[in-house]
Structure formats: structure tokens, C-alpha cells
Amino acid sequence: MSTKIEFIDLKTQYSKLRETVNARIQAVLDHGQYIMGPEVAELETKLAQFASVQHCITVSSGTEALLIALMALGVGPGDEVITTPFTFAATAEVIALVGATPVFVDIEPDTCNLDVALVGAAITSRTKAIIPVSLYGQVADMDELNALAAEHGIAVIEDAAQSFGATYRDRRSCGTSQIGCASFFPSKPLGCYGDGGAIFTNSDELARIARQIRVHGQEKRYYHARIGVGGRMDTLQCAVVLAKLECFDWEIEQRLLAGQRYMAMMSGSNSIALPVVRPDRNCVWAQFTVQVSNRDAVVDALKQAGIPTAVHYPIPLHWQPAYKDISRISGSLDNAERVAAQVLSLPMHPYIDEATQREIVDALLAAAHRPSAGTGPKRN
């Protein structure tokens, strides 16, 4: 290899956006309003327009967005929140932090998103909300979830940490339910240079409450109307996202093309299970994640070839020590347990070229055809 293969190439992105990013950062350094500076309101306006919603409230992280959303809805002790066990821990973490019980429902085996057909059976009189995760960059079945939630009078919060920029039935991720929560962690499709996130809603009341919670529950300075958190997004991070937002549409196009190339290159393999994207939506490929039966061997082979990989996620949440005794399981979680043993994420970003993808796929195909020596998580 002539050049190092990056898993997510933020260096190339910065080289392309250097002047814009630096100018945005310099503007903040010049005016010195590092907390709630003018870039915060500017970004919120532009993100709300992008997602076609009435309100965007920037916050300090994607996790904080989920937490504030639950607090704004009044979710607390005695309540249950339905979600997927196949996600990053933050999704269940925020449920536990407000004192509610995570209820795990299995995923679809092909998209790895929450299986809506199983959600109804998990709803009880204690259910207060559903948090589907738009995993890997593809929005879950939001219309079906919204309809089910409406029948039972419960809320739907889209965990869109990985899917900001994706479309679902001609609507943007974060604009498909009562509340959408995005992350601007550096590796996300739209990322900053630290932690950041945002809440999206069309509800004036939820937006008002979320803005109060974000600043320690203050209705006005030193007047605390409710319990809150220190959840503001730094002005500098908002400036970085504003700079990146200028080319975000182009980057989404490049992500879609890169995903199509990966699909085409691996389409004939019997040893690799490709991700599935439903025809009424797209995927912005926060991760391009395949499934292989001999993952450990594949990871080792790709590492020797200089190709970085990651596993999103190796242990389902109902097996995690922190959650296995405080959650409720609805039905079988066989799909989540199986895919956790097989998923493998490949290098993916808007600047990956066809030659690099070809090199990755050739190495992957060679490794995936080798006999399996066993892989995956083990029950604790």
C-alpha cells in the first residue's frame, strides 16, 4: 500500500475545509463568546431548516440530547422505555439515569434496526416512550412506530446519533417523530471537533422545556423552574459544524456512492452478509457494517493487511453487567445476540475512493472464505 487506510478520514476532510473551518473558529476567538455565542443560534436555525422541523436545540452531546429529551417528556421512576439491545450503551444509559426501566425488544436481522412487529407486545401501562435507533445511518420504521405509539399515547424519540442527513419517505432523520436526537461526535456523518449534539422537535412546549433543562433548568437567569443539567454545546463546536454544514449535502452524496460501491463489489459473495437498506429510505453509512461468521480471523487478516476495522457492537446491552439486572426483556433477543457475534465495520467516509475500497474488499473476501474458528460475544 502506498498510503495508510483511514477508518474515518477526518484529516482529509479538514484539508478540504481548512479555510472555512479556520475562519469560523477565528471568528469565535475574536468575539470571545465561548458559551451561547451567536454561532449557537445560527447553527440551530440552519439545522432546523435542514431537518424541516420547527425547533433545534443544540446540546453538549448526543447522549445529553437523549437524556434531556426524556426529562422534557417527564420520564422517570416507575416508567418503562422500549428500545433495542443492539446499540451503543448511551441509548439505555439515559433511560436508567432518569430512573426508568429499559425494555429490550429484538432487532430485524437484515437492517439491525428495532423490529416494529415486536414492539406492541412489549408495551405495558408503564410504557412512557420508545427509542428506536437509526443504526449505521439508516432510519428505522418510524411511521409504523409513530402509529403504534399514538394508539397507546406514548412518545417516540429517534436516536439519530448515526443517521443525521439520511432520508426516510422524503423526510430527514430527526424530523420523523415527536423528538429526534443527533450526535456531532467527530466520527458521525456531521461531526464537530469534540462532543456535541442536538434535539429536534415540532413541539413548542417540548422545545421550551428542553432549552430550560439545557441551562440547569433556568427559565431566566438564576430562576430555576425545573431540574436541569449543564448541557450547552460550546460555541467553538457550533462554529465547526457550521463550517462542515456547507459541504454536508455533497458529503452525503459521496457516502451514498461509497456505499453503493461496497455493495457492488461484494454482491456475489456467499461468505459475507451485506447490510440491507429499505427501498423507502437511504443510509448515510455512519458505519458500513457487514456480517461474517469468522470475524476474529477476518479482523486479524485485515489488520495484517493494514486495514482498520471496528465492531459495532460486540456485546448486546442485555448481557452488559450494568444493564442485565435493571432492564426487562420482551421476547427473544436471538437476532441481537447473533449479529453481535458477526458484525464488522469497514472503513467508511466521504473521501474514500474506489481503489481503496477495492483493496479493502479483496482482502475481506479472501479472509471471509477461510474456515471459522469461532467468534463473538459470550454471555456473562
Beta-strand percentage range: 5-15%
CATH A-level architecture of the largest domain? 3-Layer(aba) Sandwich
Q: What is the percent of helical residues?
A: 25-40%
Strand order within the widest beta sheet: 1-9-8-5-4-2-3-13
Mean pLDDT, as a whole number?
Answer: 96
Global shape:
globular
Kindly report how far apart the N and C termini lie.
40 Å
Contiguous runs where pLDDT drops below 50 for at least 5 residues: none
By CATH, the topology of the largest domain is Aspartate Aminotransferase, domain 2
**Largest beta-sheet characterization:** 8 strands, mixed
Could you outline the blueprint of secondary structure elements for this entry?
Elements: H1 10-31, H2 38-51, E1 55-59, H3 62-72, E2 80-83, H4 90-97, E3 101-104, H5 116-119, E4 127-131, H6 142-152, E5 155-159, E6 167-168, E7 171-172, E8 179-183, E9 197-201, H7 204-214, E10 218-220, E11 223-224, H8 235-245, H9 248-266, E12 288-291, H10 295-304, E13 328-329, H11 334-340, E14 343-346, H12 354-368
Parallel strand pairs: 2-3, 2-4, 3-13, 4-5, 5-8
Antiparallel strand pairs: 1-9, 6-7, 8-9, 10-11, 12-14
